[in-house]
Design goal:
four-stranded antiparallel β-sheet; alpha+beta; 4 strands; 29% strand; 36% helix
Length: 84
């Protein structure tokens, strides 16, 4: 069994996207628990929107390849594009 720590962050429609990610992750990994979200400002001048960040933690014995595939599927479903 592995302890998995995920870092979630969004600066585009951040509340909506983080809420979607939480719902999808909770459905996929029912044992996941989330921290409170925090808002942080970008440290470069290219990004203008603040980031919403949080941590998700759960334990599972899923192979890393399957975990990465599921996480990429969730990112894609929320709207992340390869150029991002």
């Amino acid at each position: 069994m592995y302890k998995i720590i995920l870092s979630l962050g969004s600066n585009n429609y951040s509340k909506l996207n983080i809420d979607k990610a939480k719902r999808m992750l909770s459905f996929t990994f029912p044992e996941i628990r989330f921290s409170s979200s925090i808002i942080s400002l970008p440290d470069d001048e290219v990004s203008t929107m603040p980031f919403r960040n949080m941590i998700g933690v759960f334990s599972d014995d899923i192979p890393i390849k399957d975990l990465m595939r599921k996480l990429k599927e969730i990112e894609f479903a929320i709207g992340r594009q390869p150029k991002d």
